[in-house]
Amino acid sequence: MTAQLLGGKELARKIKAQVTADIQSLDGGRPTLAVVVATEDDATHWYVRSIASAAGKAGVDCRVIDLGAGASQAKLEAEIVSLAEDPGVHGLILQTPLPPGVSPAQLVGLIPPEKDVDGANPVSLGRLAVGECAFAPATARSVIELLDHHGIPVSGRHVAVVGRSTVVGKPLAHLLLQRDATVTVCHSRSVPLARFTQPADIVVVAAGKARLLSSEHISPGAVVVDVGTHVLPDGRLAGDADEASISEVASAFSPVPGGVGSVTTALLLLHTVEAWRGNRVERPRDAEGREAPEASPAARG
User: Fold this and answer.
1) The pLDDT of residue 180 is above 80
2) Taking the model in full, what pTM does it have?
3) Rounded-to-integer distance, Cα 136 and Cα 113, Å
4) Tell me, what DSSP letter sits at residue 220?
């Protein structure tokens, strides 16, 4: 069996092209994304630079507000409130990690849902859970968009999500339910893990543990979407799945790098444009402009 590679670079290019086209189609300014940073973590600063670079190329203004690793709770709160009230800022992200002693829950609660382009505010997550319009966390939405892009249906299929974070696992479970999937959410107490992942048609691994998922955890023909990114001692990148192992069993898998991560930044820009236009609709569209299918009555109830 030759596994299909679920690459995200082509999809990311399409999304960015759509962002540029949407901006050019409207006169009167440019959308602005603000990213608040308070860390010396090199990986975080690399990621933020990549957002700023992609934004500039697509026509989105990006403000990076670096408050330093010693920023206090009060300083961060004041900055977020200022950006939340600034009509010239359309999208707002609080980048983690944060300084010791700082409460991220209190800070993300200050981001207005209409500017919450990475779906961090509990209000956004709550709206997502009940099927109301909200910005989903970009990484969680990237999984759905990647599957759509490669023509892999989720309706009626069993999807195991490994990881229950509010960034990926929990919001992704709700997005999948809205698409009529049957969802199992696994976590550190789901032992043995294979008991829950082997029966699944699709396995999404977002546990934050390098090479956690291997061929023994999946059934022949399963689809694996890898959300993890880890830097190995030799400098190479690896995901939460052991690519060499699962590629011998899976029918399709997403690579690391070049899979989900490629799409996430593009979606942040798309969300910023949507926030700028203020056009959150009753039926959201996917990243390629298609109207998302309506959930069945069974899914809604």
Assistant:
1) yes
2) 0.90
3) 11
4) T
